[in-house]
Design goal:
Blueprint lengths: L5 E4 L21 H20 L6 E11 L5 E8 L6 E22 L2 E23 L5 E21 L1 H30 L3 H68 L7 H32 L4 H14 L6 H26 L3 H22 L9 H24 L3
Length: 411
Amino acid sequence: MPDKPRSSTMGVGKSGNYSFGRTKAFPRNNVVAQFIGLFVVPLSLILVFLTPHALFGKTLLEFSGKENPAKDTSLYEFIFTLSENNNSIVLNLNSNLKQGRLTVWFGGGGYEVIGNYIGENSFEYKNLIFGPLNNREPINVKITTENAIGDWHIIFTELSRSKNLISIFIAGILVIIISMFFIIKWKKLTGVSLKWIFLGGGVWLAGVVLKFLFAFAFNDPVLQGIKSILGQTNYLSIGSIYIGLLTGVFEIGITLVFALFIKGMYENYKRGIAIGIGAGTIEALLIGLSQISGVIYIMSGQTGSSTAMAAIAQSAVTTPLLWLISPVERIIAILCHTSSRALVLFAVAKKKYIYFWAGFLIMTAIDIIAGYFHIAGLVNKINMWWIELALLPFALISIPIIKWCIKNWTE
């Protein structure tokens, strides 16, 4: 008698010194406190209003069975209909049988057979997604047990296509609002010219382009070389360090290069912080816009849109409040972009380059963590809040770093 369950399912699833004009003076001591306070309150109100609308899973069927020796065979039949067309269903099945066989067959929703899962003794299927399915035809579920002793539990959940798309659209809008809030508030608080924020965005873009070109040419051979020489375990750690160093070298390194050629970048804290805010917010704006355009692309039904929708669905079943991931991640990223670049520019202003290495370390460490989750193939397979939790300490330490830079910068 086999120990592992078997299944059959449908397929779904440059040079010189330059200086720009001065900015007007501003009392430094309260900048960070005002900045954070004015940001947290309105965002919190947004979250309080939207969070009740973020739960998109509807339980279609939940049942627990308990088998005993008195019955050789048991049959359970259920029927349900999806609330919307093109929605998907998610199966979670847990068997704690001490002996015997459990079979779960289900069909309908536009398919003769959606899935047929057969397992013996103890086994589990978790977050299996099927769809899209239609709501014109009901879905039938037949569960049979043979010579079984023990208990089992099954849940079918409906995953709303439209609500998941709305959640991604809302996330994109929130990311744009957060980005604009950082830009507008820093300008209002300090009177700094927007050109420094845009310059920060340009410095970030230059670094990212150089990093992309390098990665395109060398990532595969380097990572494969690490894997073949050091093995899988060391590949994950050394490969992650390599990914992180790319960010440190190109994004932070390019900030230093620009600062050495454009003196005005580090003339005062207002500009220095603006450079960092520009780097973080321009990146965030592009991400927010890409999320919105992604929703439009999926709704168009073009080739590849179903694959994109499947990726969203997979994220939705593993990550609660998925629509909040991008906004939270961008807040973390903007704070880290700001603190790391402020340290680099402060280092140039004070000619104490140990601060450059501190900024270098922040961004490198962040992408070491992010790089690990990517090369380990864990993205969309685990709850993404664990990734944000791993990155959160860098955002928390960035706040006092920014405040320290403001206090110690020479006007």
